[in-house]
Amino acid sequence: MTRRFSPRVAIHRGASSTSAQRGVGLIEVLVAVLILSIGFLGMAALQAKSLSTNNSAMARSMATIAGYSILDAMRTDVAAASSGAYNTSAPLKANACPAADSTLVKTQLNDWCSQLGATLGKTETTTGAISCSGIRGDCLITITFDDSRAGTGGASNQVVVTKGML
C-alpha cells in the first residue's frame, strides 16, 4: 500500500528564519541606488570640469588665431608694418578700441581690437599689443585675457604670445 500525503500537510520551516529575512531585498536595492547616485554625481562633476577646460582651450585657440590674423593683415601692408606703424605704445583694450579712419593701419587695428573683444570678452583685461622690429620684420603679438572662467586651472591673466615674421 502506498501512502499518500494529504495536501494540507506542508513542510514547516522555522518562523524565526522567515522573519529574519524580511526587508533584506529592500536594503540591497537602497544600497545599490546609493552607489549609483554617487557614481552619477561623479560623472556630472567630470562633465562640468570637461566643459570648463574645453572653454579655456577654445579661448586660447581664439587668441592664437587673433595673433595670426593681425600678422596676416600686416603682411598686406608690409612697408607700414616694417616701419613700426602697427606697433602699439600701450596695449589695445578690447573695451576701448581705437577709432578707425581712412588709413589702412587704423582700420586694421580697429578690426583686430574688435575681434579680440568679440572672441575673448569685451573687457578692460582683454588686451592686445604689437611690437615689430624693422630689421628683419620680426613681430611679437601679445594677447592678454581673463581665463578665470576655466575654474581651478584658469588664470585671471592668461597671456598668449605669437612671434612671426612679415
At a glance:
This protein is α+β, with helices and mostly antiparallel strands and 166 residues long. It has helices at 15-21, 24-75, 78-82, 104-120; strands at residues 92-93, 127-132, 138-145, 158-165.
Give an account of the 3D structure.
It contains 4 helices and 4 strands; from the N terminus they run αααβαβββ. The mean pLDDT is 86. It has a domain of 107 residues. The termini are far apart. 19% of the residues are buried. A hairpin with a 5-residue loop joins β2 and β3. The protein is α+β, with helices and mostly antiparallel strands and 166 residues long. It has a 4-stranded antiparallel sheet, with helices on one face.
- Strand % is 5-15%
Q: Give the helix tally.
A: 4
pLDDT < 50 stretches: none
Number of strands: 4
Helical content, roughly? 40-55%
* CA radius of gyration: 34 Å
Q: On the 0-100 scale, what is the average pLDDT?
A: 86
Distance between the termini: 114 Å
Query: What overall form do the CA principal axes indicate?
Result: rod-shaped
Biggest pleated-sheet summary: 4 strands, antiparallel
Q: In order across it, which strands form the biggest sheet?
A: 1-2-3-4
Which structural category do the helix and sheet elements fall into?
alpha+beta
Q: Helix and strand string, N-terminal first? A: HHHEHEEE
